[in-house]
Structure formats: structure tokens, C-alpha cells
Amino acid sequence: MLTGKTAVLAVTGSIAAYKIANLARMLKKLHCNVYVLMTENATNFINPITFESLVGNKCLVDTFDRNFQYSVEHVAIAKQADVVLVAPASANVIGKLANGIADDMLTTTVMACPCKKIVSPAMNHNMFHNPIVQDNIEKLKRFGYEIVAPDRGMLANGDVGDGRMPEENVLLEYIVREIAYEKDLVGKKVLVTAGATREAIDPVRFITNHSSGKMGIAIAKAAMLRGADVTLVKAHTDVAAPMFVNCIDVTSAADMFDVVSDCSSEADIIIKAAAVADYTPVIVADNKIKKSDGDVQISLKRTQDILKYLGENKKTGQIICGFSMETENVLENSKKKLFSKNCDLICANSIKSEGAGFGVDTNVVTMITRTDCTELEMMSKGCVAHKILDKIKTL
Questions:
Q1: Distance between CA 84 and CA 145 in Å, rounded?
Q2: Which residues have a Cβ under 8 Å from the Cβ of 160 and sit 6 or more positions away?
Q3: Per-residue confidence (pLDDT) for residue 205, from 0 to 100
Q4: Domain boundaries, the chain
Q5: Which CATH superfamily is domain 6-179 in?
Q6: Kind and range of the H or E element at 86?
Q7: CATH number of the domain at 189-394, out of 3.40.50.1380, 3.30.70.360, 2.40.240.50, 3.40.50.10300?
């Protein structure tokens, strides 16, 4: 995913420095080229050899180290960098960066980097809330630095407060969002539905389906990574919503319809990937017709057709993509759906196809427009998501 990309990790003097070793490993697994910069204080918490062993590049600490490959080391790395993450970021280094002080390898290199710079503060709760530190953080924001809000929890000294550096997977998501994909959807508003709606029979039971929500969530994440402003309307899913999207949780088909109808007018692209329960149960029994075992009779009332509503109310220039999961006559039935729902694109698959369907991490999809059909080979749902967005861009 990050092949050909270079990330610079700038590590300062904080107990949280040990977490960056795992972050470096995670980046290398994504084939990212990683350079690590450390302050002298940081070397008291973790040895530079650890980073050198993980990333395969010299860990830089001393500005005047003569054992380097390039004539001006900090400038050479700055030219290569696609993103810089300062984590953990101490109050001292935050203050230096905010006020233009470059007196070591880390601050000198960070200031020489023209790329996006992300700062993750990590310090004692009271220090983090010191007005001077907060003023320096605000100053960095004005200069275009992105600040990762610290977590709240137990700190190194046993106090409880906000000042903890987030876990490595969170920091990784900030880096991936910045450099993984071209931002070809910047300025676009994308509305995605995902998951399985649930229709209550009584306070205990409900009607639903086997959808895991993985495909819809993969689409939401892919659109976000490509720069779109994404709203995810999420029913029940087996996986968590991605970071950096506006997630609205719903339960029933009626809930989803209400939210989608409210949000649809603002969207440039709408992708309905949710598996909506088509029927909602209605209790029709009363005391006179209850069965002898105490069960009640239930009728099923068809829920609002969300995709049809979207097609009937499509705005000028808006693109609507639906999904069609069939057991037979996949292409024929999906083409009918394309026209009857007034969609621009239908992504069709068969639950009988190996590697496709509910719950799995792969999918086999045929993308159908009014003029052509494109059959995709089996691939991860993340890859399918990007193929769908690529197709939408051509419409």
C-alpha cells in the first residue's frame, strides 16, 4: 500500500517512545521507506539500534554526525519525506517547532520538510493543559501542522487524565490517510450505507440478514483515503467504522431511510451498500386469535425502498451506485434494477460465487452501467472498493 512512499518518524523524550518501534514495524510491513529521528532525551527511553534494525535506515540523532550518506543529511531526508509524524511530541519540542527553534537533528529536519507534518502530543495532564503548551499547539495548527488529540487514561506517573499518546494503529491511520492514495476525490461529498438493518418483532427478537457491512465500510474508507468528505450511515456491522468519516448509526430500515433522505441532497456520490431488511414485522394477533402456545401471528410489511427513492429524487450531476446480490440470473436481474431504480451503476454479485457474499473479506463483482459491464476477478473488498470508485469517476 505504501510502496514508494517515505515516512519520517520524529521521536522525542517521552515514555511513549517505545510505541513507535511497533509503528515503524507496521509501516515497513506496508512497504513504506521509514527514517527515524530522535532527540538525545529520546535515546534514554529506547535505543536507536532498535529502530535501525526495524527500518533498515540509520537512526539520526546528532546534527554533526559525520557518518552519513548525504552531504546535508537533514535536507536530503526532508526532500524524500512524504509525511512527518512527531510522536511522542514533548512539550519542549512542540515549543521549539512552534517558535522556529531548530537546534538539533530532529527539529532541523522537521522544519526543512515541505510535506504534511503531524504532531502527537504526549505528556503529563497538567503539562498538556498548561496555557503556554496549548498556545504553542494552536500556533502549530495555524502553520498547517495536524494535531492528534491525546487519549485519556492512566499516565506514566499514575495520574488519570488526557495526555497519553494514542495507540500505534491510530497513528498509522493518520499516516496512511495522508500518503496512501492520490486525493482525486477532494471536494466530493460521498454518502455510503453499510450493514444489516434490524426490524424488531418484540423487545427481544428481530428480522435481519447475514450482511457483515464489510463491503460498505471498505467503500467508505477508500473514499476517505482519496480525499472525499464521507458520511457513513451504518446499521449492524461486524467491523468498526473507519476513522475520519462522519458515522451515523441506525437500526431499522426506516431509520436508515430517514437519515439517507436527509443527507442525500448534499451528496455528490451515493453508494447504497447496506443490506436492508425488506420487510418489517407487524403484530396482527390479538387475544382472540393467539395460538394455544401463546405465540402471536405476524404479518410482514414491505419497508421503504431506499434505492428507488434516491433514484426518483436524484439531483443534477449526482451519481448513484447500488448493489445487487442475486442467486440466479445475476446480470439480467441487476440490469433491470439499474433501470428501475434509476441508478448510474449497479455492482452485482452472486452469493453462490466462491469468495463472494456475506461475511468474507473478498468479493466477486460485476460493475454494470447503462452502456457496459465490467467483471472483476476475486479480490479483497478494499480493492473492489477502489475499482468501484475508479468506475464512478468515469461516469
A1: 10
A2: 125, 152, 153, 154
A3: 87
A4: 6-179, 189-394
A5: Flavin prenyltransferase-like (3.40.50.1950)
A6: strand 83-89
A7: 3.40.50.10300
87 vs 118: CA distance, rounded Å: 8
Of 315, 164, 152, 181, give the one whose Cα is nearest residue 244. Answer: 181
Q: Helix (H, G, I), strand (E, B), or coil: what is residue 285?
A: coil
Under 8 Å between Cβ of 198 and 206: yes
Which tens digit of pLDDT belongs to each residue from 78-118? 899 999 999 999 999 999 999 999 999 999 999 999 999 99
Q: Which residues contact 29 (CB under 8 A, 6 or more apart)?
A: none
Q: CB of 198 within 8 A of CB of 252?
A: yes
C-alpha cell at position 98: 512552534
Residue 127 grid coordinates: 503539562
User: Is 209 among the catalytic positions?
Assistant: yes
Distance (Å) of CA 286 to CA 199, 320, 345: 20, 43, 45
Residues linked to residue 152 through DSSP beta bridges, in sequence order: 162
State the helix-helix crossing angle for 91-98 and 105-112, rounded to 10 degrees: 40
Candidates 22, 41, 92, 209; catalytic one: 209
pLDDT tier, 69 (very low <50, low <70, confident <90, very high otherwise): low
Residue appearing with cell numbers 429524487 = 313
Show the cell assigned to 238: 461486524
Vertex 127 angle, CA 122 and 133, to 5°: 85
Task: Determine the residue type at 253.
Answer: A
Tell me whether the CATH fold assigned to 6-179 matches the one assigned to 189-394.
yes
Preceding omega of 88 cis (within 30 degrees of 0): yes
Helices (H) and strands (E) in the chain, counts: 13, 21
- As a whole number of angstroms, the distance between CA 263 and CA 249 comes to 13
Count CB atoms within 10 A of the CB of residue 148.
20
pLDDT in tens, 24-36: 999 999 999 999 9
